[in-house]
Amino acid sequence: MSKGNSKDTLENSADGKVRSIEETLSLDQRVEIIKKSVENIIYALGDDPKREGLLKTPQRYAKAILEILWGYFADPEDIIGDAIFEQDYSGIVLVRHIKFFSMCEHHLLPFFGNCSIAYIPDGKIIGLSKLPRVVKFFAGRLQVQERLTEDIGKFIEKVLKPRGVAIYVSAYHLCLAMRGVKKEGVKMDTVFFSGKFQHDDNLKNFFLKQIREDRKIEI
Description:
By secondary structure, the chain is α+β, with helices and mostly antiparallel strands. It has helices spanning about 25-45, 55-70, 75-80, 130-140, 145-160, 175, 195-200, 200-215, and strands at about 10, 20, 85, 95-105, 110-120, 125, 140-145, 165-175, 185-195. The chain folds into two domains: about 10-70, GTP Cyclohydrolase I, Chain A, domain 1 (Orthogonal Bundle), CATH 1.10.286; about 85-215, GTP cyclohydrolase I, C-terminal domain/NADPH-dependent 7-cyano-7-deazaguanine reductase, N-terminal domain (GTP Cyclohydrolase I, domain 2, 2-Layer Sandwich). The strands form three sheets. A five-stranded mixed sheet has the order 7-4-5-8-9, sandwiched between helices. Strands 1-2 form a two-stranded antiparallel ribbon. β1 and β2 (about 20) form a beta hairpin. α1 packs across α2 (about 55-70) and α4 (about 130-140) crosses α5 (about 145-160). It is globular and about 60 Å long.
């Protein structure tokens, strides 16, 4: 996370960095703020935050949510490091079925699924292990699936400058399964195309065919 003066709003930028409302908070301060909020939620629900079963729940939740949403406290370029290599390869690089967990920003409930990434290099490739880390980084924030899909695609475009990028994300949303219409087992699919994948129907269809085969794999 970049350092600087505190701001009134969160800013998401194409580089994947987040400028926090308050960047100077220590870990202990963040935990304490979240603890108090959880205590208030328990109280508002009509339960006793001081009873034995709930006494340590605010502390546990605070630590858990900060671990889950670790993407606010990291720089994606640090995750990539020096794992970008010069390589004269003009074919498609396809990495499928990267599992992830994220949190819906509308209801603060989890959504989870898998992501597939394809790109056509233009003189540069990225270390294989870095693509799952990029997915998990952007999933480690309050998100909507549509933006998550674009965040991943645009970041890969930025660091590799490839001839094309394709991203496919399929996920279950607990805000759909547990509340509202309460529809279990419904998946949402989102797709991002750029460059040659956006303009070449053969490449687009090749990518989607590989994904259709992956649909046989359950999370």
